Amino acid sequence: MNERAAASPRATNEMPRVGDPQDACGDTLQQRYQRIRARSAQLAAPLSAEDCCVQSMPDASPVKWHLAHTTWFFETFALEAFDSGFKPWHGAYRVLFNSYYNSIGDKHPRPQRGMLTRPSLAEIKDYRVHVDGRVLALLRHRGDDSQLRQMLMLGLNHEQQHQELLLTDVKHLLWQNPLHPAYRAGDAPGRSSHAPLEWIACSGGLVQIGHSGEGFAFDNELPRHSIFLQPYLLASRLVTNGEYMRFIDAGGYRRPQCWSAEGWDWVVREKLTNPIYWFADGDHWQEFGLHGLTRLDPDLPVVHVSYYEADAYARWADARLPTEAEWEHAAASVTLEGNFADNGWLHPSAAPASGLSQMFGDAWEWTQSSYAPYPRFRPAAGAVGEYNAKFMLNQYVLRGGSCATPAGHVRRSYRNFFPTGARWQFSGIRLARDS
Amino acid sequence: MNERAAASPRATNEMPRVGDPQDACGDTLQQRYQRIRARSAQLAAPLSAEDCCVQSMPDASPVKWHLAHTTWFFETFALEAFDSGFKPWHGAYRVLFNSYYNSIGDKHPRPQRGMLTRPSLAEIKDYRVHVDGRVLALLRHRGDDSQLRQMLMLGLNHEQQHQELLLTDVKHLLWQNPLHPAYRAGDAPGRSSHAPLEWIACSGGLVQIGHSGEGFAFDNELPRHSIFLQPYLLASRLVTNGEYMRFIDAGGYRRPQCWSAEGWDWVVREKLTNPIYWFADGDHWQEFGLHGLTRLDPDLPVVHVSYYEADAYARWADARLPTEAEWEHAAASVTLEGNFADNGWLHPSAAPASGLSQMFGDAWEWTQSSYAPYPRFRPAAGAVGEYNAKFMLNQYVLRGGSCATPAGHVRRSYRNFFPTGARWQFSGIRLARDS
Amino acid sequence: MNERAAASPRATNEMPRVGDPQDACGDTLQQRYQRIRARSAQLAAPLSAEDCCVQSMPDASPVKWHLAHTTWFFETFALEAFDSGFKPWHGAYRVLFNSYYNSIGDKHPRPQRGMLTRPSLAEIKDYRVHVDGRVLALLRHRGDDSQLRQMLMLGLNHEQQHQELLLTDVKHLLWQNPLHPAYRAGDAPGRSSHAPLEWIACSGGLVQIGHSGEGFAFDNELPRHSIFLQPYLLASRLVTNGEYMRFIDAGGYRRPQCWSAEGWDWVVREKLTNPIYWFADGDHWQEFGLHGLTRLDPDLPVVHVSYYEADAYARWADARLPTEAEWEHAAASVTLEGNFADNGWLHPSAAPASGLSQMFGDAWEWTQSSYAPYPRFRPAAGAVGEYNAKFMLNQYVLRGGSCATPAGHVRRSYRNFFPTGARWQFSGIRLARDS
Amino acid sequence: MNERAAASPRATNEMPRVGDPQDACGDTLQQRYQRIRARSAQLAAPLSAEDCCVQSMPDASPVKWHLAHTTWFFETFALEAFDSGFKPWHGAYRVLFNSYYNSIGDKHPRPQRGMLTRPSLAEIKDYRVHVDGRVLALLRHRGDDSQLRQMLMLGLNHEQQHQELLLTDVKHLLWQNPLHPAYRAGDAPGRSSHAPLEWIACSGGLVQIGHSGEGFAFDNELPRHSIFLQPYLLASRLVTNGEYMRFIDAGGYRRPQCWSAEGWDWVVREKLTNPIYWFADGDHWQEFGLHGLTRLDPDLPVVHVSYYEADAYARWADARLPTEAEWEHAAASVTLEGNFADNGWLHPSAAPASGLSQMFGDAWEWTQSSYAPYPRFRPAAGAVGEYNAKFMLNQYVLRGGSCATPAGHVRRSYRNFFPTGARWQFSGIRLARDS
Q1: A262 contacts chain C (CB < 8 A)
Q2: Do chains B and C touch (3 or more CB pairs under 8 A)?
Q3: Is beta strand A199-202 parallel, antiparallel or unpaired with respect to B364-370?
Q4: In chain A, whose CA is at the least distance from the CA of C226?
Q5: Which residue has the higher pLDDT, A188 or A202?
Q6: CB within 8 Å: D393 and B420
Q7: How far apart are alpha carbons B265 and B262 in whole angstroms?
Q8: A18 at the B interface (CB within 8 A)?
Q9: A·B CB contacts under 8 A
Q10: pLDDT (0 to 100) of residue B387
């Protein structure tokens, strides 16, 4: 995800066709715009101006920056491009809130985003109100311009990506506070229970992956293409905390045999003994989450593991990670529903008792696939072509969305990607095996 | 300064005798307590909660942390020690706001101070109000306890040190913001003018330095002792921006001959070409200050130079830095007044036309003296013994106070100290020569 | 390559079957052993004991270490495993010359290999003589043991990998010497000439890649499997220095648009403007090579470029890098011959006038394929299973061998691999395009 | 020492007057030149070309580099300056073997000295023979030129400094080798015995320190000047290994209270638990020395401690380090003899039974004095003025010479200096106390 988003070009670099006048949610583009933009503000509501200002590490951004950058996106790619009366809201914002678009010009250095105590949170909220007004006016007057509609769709999908990053970044920030404050109070939705692991047999052969159909997709999901798969087995659910604890108890973090060479160097260098948000507390574990510090529930999926850890766990369990094609092929027959961010509980849930489950929501699933362009991939035209293509290197693909992903955002063909050491996303493990 | 402060023990590790019932300012200890504590809040008043939360570098602290730590100091060393009914205001603060007192116990890591978005600024203000109430009540009931009075004097001097750090730290933070916001609006107090440099002849011989008399002093100013000096010449005023520009124009930052070996390595490694808060703007310089970005005034003292730069400038000017004994000996005959922080203008002023001037206020003056214990120095007893003694290594002494120092805080014997690379303090240059 | 080598297991983890009694070169295993082992000594012959001792960077190893480690490999995996009268030649060598085999036990830290002035080069030569004698005696007595024969074949292929590393490592060492000493004197074999670039059309479909047949292969080349390819175009020859100079002249190292995001960060951080062994000399370039410093020949292939540079060049040239499957599929019809290390000239040569050329030898060709296990890959059994499998992460595959690779070492299915920033190998660029 | 040496200028920057025709050793300058130059070759004799080539850390230099640089010194400052027929022996050596003299021009980067496998050790030996021949011829023809004689005296003292560095650098190199090779075989000269610690009372007052008389001195020992001392107590001997073990056993490396703030950060960051060359071996200690690995003798002086460690030990022992003036004042009455490098045993010896002992030889003694210019100090004129003056910053003075110092090299006024973290010199601890 990584703040990247781009139009989905076909051979002619067209923008994706949006299913107007109403999409699957049944709302118009105006309604969708208002709904998604409002949700960002709602996510920031439990936080103080101080919470929204601080950057906890170079990979994370302040909440205020997310609120400003997503607005900058609409100002730059919609208003500046389509609004004949465009004037920038503030002369400095073009640079301050550019993330990485070299085609747009200079940008404020990423590790310095947390230095921006000015503009204030209140000023950024004003900025949002202003841009929203201009965008909605533009939609009223030029709502039949398909280029504009497609750019707005892109901006909304981009904003949803930042909604997830906002949550994972603030989780990382609050975790560093010795007071362990909760982002949101509340109790877990019912007691979890243990679902046995089953191995689901999947046939191989020449299959198709990649986005198809009329709806929105990012350019990295295209073009749909053929790939040859051997038959394989896929685990019915995510690896649980309880299973991962057995890996730890078996010396998982002390035995190089479980790890890739680079992963083992990482464990030794960082002196790691457990997932990032776990705290040893006597003879049991506590886990820090957006709902505060709680006793680790062995029946819930393990989350916030890096690729290194997912890969090591799989090796220890005499299994492997699936490829992204295996994952997508298996997902074709699964209903696109799950534990997403909209249900009020920002943590994974336990798997149901049987069948292929948790493919969507709960936790992003590491695949063994390095993030690479699909055959005949063409980046989107213009500045938005920088969103995905330039990151296809030394990162690995994750699939399926998480409990922090907005409902309706992911697709079966959706490709998230992070470097092998990233742990602050809701990333989990689904095992695979050769059949 | 560096957040260090300690009682001034004599041979018996007594605390310094406070000149009660009224000091030079004419106010009682209660009044002084209220006045100095209120000033900290006033210094934070122009700042938002966001401004007060962010840490701009490991050497600097957030404003909120300064406000909390100085309060922690009174809570820990006055209330906990002298108030029989003491209860901590918050169980976690003892660790969160401990700076470096190993005798007190654990401390929150210094580079992580900026992660503390909680407790909020409002909560810290409540903490201040609570502790102030308890301290004043204690003074009412036990105001005749000289140990308590001395500890409160120490705490107030400690708070004044943090008032200066608060200003230099927030200056460093705002400087990193591309918007260059001013801490405080306002125009410079009148046009500066050029004062010619004179060399003041000082006699040597066996002289005395170190604190004497009844008033408060830190332990590092004691004991007063004899030292033998050769005759020397001292510059009548600080080096100006205009003089420093000539050093730059003469290739000062490109010629290793001007620098110590370590200083030159520093220039090359950091790729330096000018003092920290200067911005090249076409063919002239701008300077960032607490009053915003303005054109560099050649008649004002150069500030924010490191020891390396002060030493290089002196070598280029065929002079040297004074020793701290030379400085103190010359200062003995100078009235203790100058451009301090209380006059509303937080920047150095130009020197008057003639005579030994600017010895106090305007800018801390680097000396060539490594910070070391005076002969027969004894650290204060107890935890406060950690304040000064353990820093007497690889730092250099600065003298005289600056435009950010509270009036009434410094003495002729006052020893400030920083590492050779520090630039974010109001540090300037006074030259000396052998006569 | 990276000092990794492993047996080629099939489903049952068997060792590869060696084509006894005589291989393609027509010599017996004894003869091959003596020939390959002697070649290592010959490669070190132009070097002094000093040249053989120094480590120029953590990624490189001293020549002496290569000579010792390859011997350790035979001592550990052949003598210790198969020789009933085995006694270690020196008690400390098991640790000193273990590269990365955790199953064997402790190892001397890689960045410290250059500290080993003892044992001396002469002692390592004695070690080689001793182990060679024992291995040849073992072959005489147990030459019909196929397990032993396969392990020796593995050791010889391993030694050939280190012969190439020895050359690239010593090139890196000599390059750092301001005297620019040549590894070997000599003139280039005739004047190069310009071959125009052609695009070779390759059909796609469901093709097979991976090792087949009876000969030796590493485990990472197995199993042979199906993969679906779209039709594509492959450049007829490697990119030349002249072409790469045009990339530089067009601002290649100054324009982020040409680069992946990570590649651009690398260029900025390392302040790069050209390939590693180039020296600007007035208005032309010099190139450092194993034959010393010479004027850069525009008709020769560009070498010593990283993946980042190869990828950026391809983007600038409106092309892309081939996948490893595309490369291997095209290589199926090409005769396995080229400019290898045995011809006495350790530098790439110019391409012939037409046709698909330079597929083997000259320069390793970066592919866009992340190094990953083939479907149903199984690492070799035992300690040798550590050689390849644990490196399948964040590295990219190179194909075809180079002018520093021993003739007869590479295969069409051979997979070399290095991290994206590696530049000290003879790595070059072959372009591809969608057709 | 640090490879710095300079003429001792008086007010007029004269060179020091050399006590010709014969010095205290009774030999002529010719004889002295030959004797000292031959000793460098003798020190390298037990080492292989490999041993002489490798650089074990940036602070250390290869033995070959020492041999070349000291020769470069004579070639550059004597032959080039005084020999009308001068031609450089090799065009590249002027840069390769320049240590830090910016006035001479470019220099090979210090951390890259170990990359110089060429020129070979044999070539450097030829270089030495050549320069020696030219220097002796020059002495024959212009031996009455006092400027030349003084420069040669400087070069010989410089060479003696490098003789000590050669030994400490090679010790550091061999220590890193798991084989723990000895530089020189041999048994300790007799069993050591325990000398009780006495406190020697020294009177204070206005005393003189700095070089006096006609003999050679470096510029940093001048001018002789007055300083006022309080009465003090000086330990009769160096701190022993046994005493230091009690510090360790008392938790010295685990208790921040013993350390300066910077020292404690150093201990934590480097994870230190003991002096650098100690190895824990079951329930006792081994010590690595130039004579190999032996059981730590509790009666010998502790050596290879940093300033941080010396300071921490002193604090723990309720004492302090002496100032350099205290040391020199006490040394005035001590005969200049001790355990120096010429006696064949390159390790400290135990103290004799009583009286102020070990002031010279055995171990350099850390003082609490930051290395600073003496009052009215003037660097030597010309390039040699770079030797000492530019290092007077963030280093501390050591006094008295060590078991690796050539006999006859040190003086009572001799000032060695190293940064506070340096441990690879033969540095030890003598305690002082206020009386």
Answers
A1: yes
A2: no
A3: unpaired
A4: A228
A5: A202
A6: yes
A7: 5
A8: no
A9: 79
A10: 83
Sign of the CA dihedral A19, A22, A27, A31? positive
Task: Mark yes or no for CB contact B112/A49 under 8 Å.
Answer: no
C420 touching A (Cβ < 8 Å): yes
Dihedral Cα A114, A117, A119, A121, nearest 10 deg: 90
- Angle formed by the axes of helices A63-74 and A146-175, nearest 10°: 170
Residue D398 scores a pLDDT above 50: yes
| Among A165, A124, A58, A155, residue whose Cα is nearest residue A383 | A155
Same domain, A170 and A209: no
- Cα separations (Å) of C155 from A242, C8, C36, C65, D77? 43, 13, 10, 16, 55
What CATH number is associated with residue B334?
3.90.1580.10
Cross-strand bridge partners of residue A232 = A202, A434
Parts of chain C with a pLDDT under 50: 1-24
| Touch between chain A and chain D: 3 or more Cβ pairs under 8 Å | no
- Do A52 and A117 lie in one domain? The reply is yes
- Indicate whether D265 belongs to any domain: yes
Contacts of C227 in chain A (CB under 8 A): 228
Residue B411 structure tokens = 């003495």
Query: What pLDDT score was predicted for residue C391?
Result: 95
Residue A372 distance to chain B (closest CA, Å): 36
Q: Is D57 on the interface with C (CB under 8 A)?
A: no
Task: Assess if residue C241 is contained within a domain.
Answer: yes
Q: Which residues contact C63 (CB under 8 A, 6 or more apart)?
A: C43, C44, C47, C51, C52, C53, C166, C169, C170
pLDDT for the residue C25: 54
**Quick check: D131 and D69 in contact, CB under 8 A?**
no
Residue D288 domain-assigned (yes or no)? yes
Bridge partners, B279 (sequence order) = B286
Same domain, A232 and A299: yes
Residue D115 and residue D171 in one domain: yes
Give the Å distances, CA to CA, from D5 to C418, D162, D218, D221, D380. Answer: 48, 10, 6, 11, 10
Instruction: State what percent of residues in chain A have pLDDT above 90.
Output: 86
Kindly report the CATH number assigned to the domain that includes residue B153. 1.20.120
pLDDT tops 70 at residue A9? no
Distance between CA D69 and CA D163 in Å, rounded?
12
Q: What is the average pLDDT across A251-260?
A: 96
- What interface predicted TM-score (ipTM) does this complex get? 0.93
Provide the pLDDT for residue D169.
Answer: 98
User: Does one domain contain both A135 and A46?
Assistant: yes
Q: Which two tokens stand for residue A401?
A: 């969305």
A319 touches chain C (CB under 8 A): no
Tell me which range, A36-40, B105-109, C339-343, D193-197, is most confidently predicted by mean pLDDT.
Answer: A36-40
Task: Confirm or reject contact between C187 and chain A (CB < 8 A).
Answer: no
A427 DSSP 8-state letter: E
Same domain, A122 and A254: no
E strand spans, B214-324: 225-229, 232-235, 278-281, 284-289, 292-295
Is the predicted pLDDT of residue A77 greater than 50, yes or no? yes
- On chain B, the residues whose CB falls within 8 A of the CB of A95 are 178
Tell me what pLDDT residue B103 has.
84
In this predicted structure, the answer to whether residue D9 has a pLDDT above a threshold of 70 is no
Number of structural domains found in chain B: 2
Q: For A219-223, C19-23, D122-126, which range has the lowest pLDDT when averaged over its residues?
A: C19-23
Average pLDDT score, chain D: 92
Which structural domain, as residue segments, surrounds residue C109?
A: 29-175
Q: Which residues does chain B have with pLDDT short of 70? A: 1-26, 190-192
∠ CA A62-A65-A67, rounded to 5°: 115
Residues C215 and C266 in one domain: yes
Q: Assess if residue B184 is contained within a domain.
A: no
Of A257, A260, A394, which has the smallest distance from its Cβ to C262's Cβ?
A394
CA-closest candidate to residue D172, choices D69, D67, D59 = D59
Same domain membership, residue B160 and residue B299: no
